[in-house]
Amino acid sequence: MGDEPLAAPTWPALTEAEAASAVAATWGFDGATIEWRSARPLSATVGVRTGSERLVVKRLPSALRDLGALAEEHRFMAHLRARGIPVPEVRTVAGSELRAAASRDELGQHRCGVESTEPDSAGGSHADHRAFVYEVHRLGEGDDRYRADFSWTPFRDIEDAAAAGTMLARLHSAAEGFDAPTRPVRPLLASMHSDVIDAFEWHIARRPALAAFLANRDWRTEVPDLRADLTTVEPLWTHGDWHPTNLLWRDHEVTSVIDFGLSDRTTAVFDLVTAVERTAVDWISLRDGGPANVRTDQITALFEGYQSIRPLNHAESQLLPDLLPLAHIGYELSEIDYFLTIPQEPRNAEIAYNDWLLGHLRWYETPEGHNLRALLHDLATR
């Protein structure tokens, strides 16, 4: 997030006893040995082995996702799985329901932004399992080849980019018929907006902490006037966070799709431009004054893979270049709100606003940004 090479973890690490308790409560398996831990700073995730089974345990603060919020994602995952998309099965449990045998000491006592009401020996308060919910996923088919990569980095090669485009098109075709409404306002969601100013006003009206954060900023003069006409395309539930670290692989084939935390009712074009935003521009280099390193070869391969399965219609093709600069804004406003309200990290909220929100919007107004939008128009209308 800042000048450090790697951000410190936001949440305390999952203990083996905690993971075993979540596995027992969801799948009924006894014992769990941790085989790997996620390096991502916003995540508390481990891979475990229990007997012959391998599972993935994710712990989330209930202020971020409670069981009802996770059920929204899991219903969509089940719909896709029933229509042939390789999405691992998942079960959930509230921290308050973990087995009684797992004592508070076994599950760990850690200081962080989510607090229980029980004092610790130093007179403060600690975070315990009752403040969290747990997802326990069956391990997806394929290799997690991008696990060690930074999020928002390119594909390894154009073959992976093409395969990701093909699977994204398959997912969009399978998503048709899933008629759930748009998700309620929550932290860390990738909402879709047709206008920068309207996006700010929409989130300010629904996120009090964000409203206070922006109250003394002249944000209306800081953001460019960017718009896209969303009335011409049909709504669709989408993944919302399409990049290679959320896919499992075998050679150059996508064998599993994971991490539906940003899924919502948007539109297929929104998911497609999100994939470009997440993988085609070197935002970390740009933040540090370096080049954008736009991967036109991978964008081309992604589009060719996508259109080989689900050709874009005329309205979608026309919308693509206008929607690209807006793809990130809803998520980033929700991330600022997340930093302010859940881990309570105002410095990260400042970085998110200046570097990842304003920085992205302004780059799309540069010649390089205009060239990328022109490329999307050409690819979509071939």
TrEMBL record:
Keywords: Transferase
Top-level division of the source organism's lineage: Bacteria
Name of the protein: Phosphotransferase
Any Pfam family hit: APH
Gene Ontology annotations of biological process type: threonine biosynthetic process
Protein family: Belongs to the pseudomonas-type ThrB family.
InterPro entries in UniProt: Aminoglycoside_PTrfase, Kinase-like_dom_sf, Pseudomonas-type_ThrB
Family matches, as SUPFAM superfamilies: Protein kinase-like (PK-like)
Residues of the Aminoglycoside phosphotransferase domain: 45-312
Native organism: Nocardia coubleae
Molecular function GO labels: homoserine kinase activity
Stored PANTHER family: AMINOGLYCOSIDE PHOSPHOTRANSFERASE DOMAIN-CONTAINING PROTEIN (PTHR21064:SF6), AMINOGLYCOSIDE PHOSPHOTRANSFERASE DOMAIN-CONTAINING PROTEIN-RELATED (PTHR21064)
Keyword Transferase: yes
